[in-house]
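As described in the Methods, two query proteins were run sequentially through the folding procedure within a single session, without resetting any intermediate state between them. The first query and its resulting C-alpha cells are shown here.
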Amino acid sequence: MNLALTSLEQGLIYSVLAMGVYITYKILDIADLTAESSFPFGALLFAKLATSGMNPIISCLIVFVVGTFTGLLTALLHIKLKIEALLAGILSMTILYSINLRINGKPNVPLSGAKSIFDINISGNSYVDKIIVVFVLVMIIKFVLDWFLKTETGYLVIATGDNKSLVRSLGENSNKYIIIGLMLSNGLIALSGALLAQSSGFADITMGVSIIVVALASIIIGDTIFRDDVVKGTTKVIIGAIIYKIIGAIALKLGLKPTDFRMVNGIIVVLFIAYNNLQSGFLAKRKNARRAEND
C-alpha cells in the first residue's frame, strides 16, 4: 500500500515537470533539454533556502520565479545568438551544471530538520497527507496554466508553435512568445524539482539525469490513452505521469532493481511511441480505404 501511495505522490510531482515540458514539446514544438539542469536547479535552490530557515511556500515561489531564468538563458542563446534550440538547451544544461554545484557548494544537500510544505497533519497518515498537499498544488497549477493558455498571450504562445509566420502577420514578435514559453516551462520544471527534494528529503545534482525521458513518457502515455481533444493537454500529462509511476512501481514489485529503471523508462517510451505510430498508420489506412470506396 505504501508503495502505491508513494507512486501516486511521485506521479503528481512529476506531473508538474510534465506540464512544463508539455509547453515546449507540444505547444512550442521545441526540443528543450534545459530540464536536465533546471530540475536539479530547483531542488538545490530550495535546499539552500529551506536550510536557511525560509518558509517552504515562499521558497517554492522563489524557486519558480528564479527557475524561469534558466529558460530565459536557453531562449536568449536560441534567439539572440541564432543557436539551434536543441543545442541551446544542451549548452544551458552544461552551464547550469556548474551553477547548481555553486548554489550550496556541494552536490548533495540533506533536508533533515528543514521545513517542508508536507509538514502538515490532515489524516494522520504521512503518505496520504503528502498526496493531499501535492494534489491540491497540482490542481492549482493545472487550472492556472489552463487559464493562461486561454488568455491573449497564451493563444499567441500556442500560435507561435503552430505557425510563426501567422503571429508575425498579426504584428506580433514570435520570439517574445518563445521566450515566455521557455521561461514558464522551466519555472514549472524547477518547481517540480523543489517538490521532489521535499518529498525525498534531499537535493542532489544528479536528480535531473534522464528526467526529460520521464516527462516525455508522461506526455506520450497521456496522448496514447486520450487520443481526442476532448480532454485537456494538462489533464492528459497529469494522468500520464501517474500511470508512468504506477508502471515503475509494478516493475519494482516484479523484482527489478532500481538501477534498471532507466532501461524501463526507455522501454516504456519506445513501446508507447511504437503503439502510437502503428495506431496512426492503421487509422490512416482505414481512412484511405473509405475514401477509395466512396470514389
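Immediately afterward, the second query was submitted; its sequence and C-alpha cells are:
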Amino acid sequence: MERRNADPGLVDGMTTELGGPRTADLLARLDQVVPWETLAKPVRKLYKNKDGGAPAWPAVMMIKCVMLAKWYGLSDPQLEEHLRDRLSFRRFIGLSLIDKTPDETTFVVFRRRLRDAGLERTLFDAAGKHLEKLGVLVKEGTLVDATIIEQSCGKKRDDGTSTRDEEASFTKKHGRTYHGYKGHIAADKSGIVTDYRFSTASHHDSRYIDEMTRAEKIAVYGDSAYSDTTRRRILKSRGVIDAIVYKRNRGQKDLFDWQERWNKLVSKVRAFVEHPFARMKRTGYRDVRYRGLRRNEVDFAFNLMAHNFKHALCLV
C-alpha cells in the first residue's frame, strides 16, 4: 500500500510563482517525456507482500527521486537536502509544503529492493521501448564504446588489511593505471543508449560487443579496440557493415591509405557514442558512488536512463 500525500493547500497556492523558473521548466518537460506509470508498475509489485509497517512511499515519487539524483549529480544526503529546500523539486515529485520528506535511508532501501529484484534492467528496457515509440531512435546501426569509472584505491589499516573495494580491479590506459569498473554501452546514431554491460575495469573493451550487437542488421561502429579479424568476418557473413576503426597489424608500419580514409569516415559517426559518457561525467559521474559490482551496476543503469530521457528532449 502506498502512502497518500496531502493535496496542495493554501500555502502551496501562495508560493506557486516561487522557485527557479528554468529548473521548473526543465522538470516539466521531463515530466512529459518519462513514462512514470510504466516504470512504476513493476516497482509496485515489490510492495504487495509487505507486512505491516507504514505505507510505502509512492513508486512514481521514488523513481522521480532517483532520476533527480542522476540529473543533478546528487548523493542521497544531498537529494534529501534539496527536497527539503527546493520548491521545484518538491512539486516535481508531488510533495506539498506540509508533506514529510523521504530521507536518505529511504533512498538506500529503495535501491536495495530494486537491486535484489534485478529490476534495473527491466526499467532500462521499458524506458527504451517508450523512447522508441516516441520515434527518437535512429536505427541506422549500433555504436559501441566503453569507459573506465574509477574507484578509490582505499587505505591500509593498522592491522595490515585495506579498505580497497575488492570487486574493483586495475587496468592501464595510455600508460596510466586506473582502479575501478568499466561501463560498456551500445547506442544508436541519435546518442540514445540502447544496451549496456557493467564490469570490473580489467575486462577488455571488446568483451561485450558481440552480445550487444547480435541483433544488429545494418552496421556496427567501434574504435580500434574492437578491431578483430574474426569479428570482421562474422559481420560480413551476416551482411552487416563493418564500421570498426582499423589498427595496424603486427609488422605493419603504417595503415594503408584506404584504411585511413575509412577510419576518418567511420570516426565521424562513431563519435556520437562518446556523447552519453561525456554528458554523464558533466553531472559528476566520473567515479563510482558505491562499493561492489552490483551496487554500481544498478547505479550505472540509472545514470543511462537519466541520460536517455534528458537527451530525448533534444530529439522529440
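The CA atoms of residues 186 and 212 lie 7 Å apart. We note this only descriptively and draw no conclusion about the first query from it.
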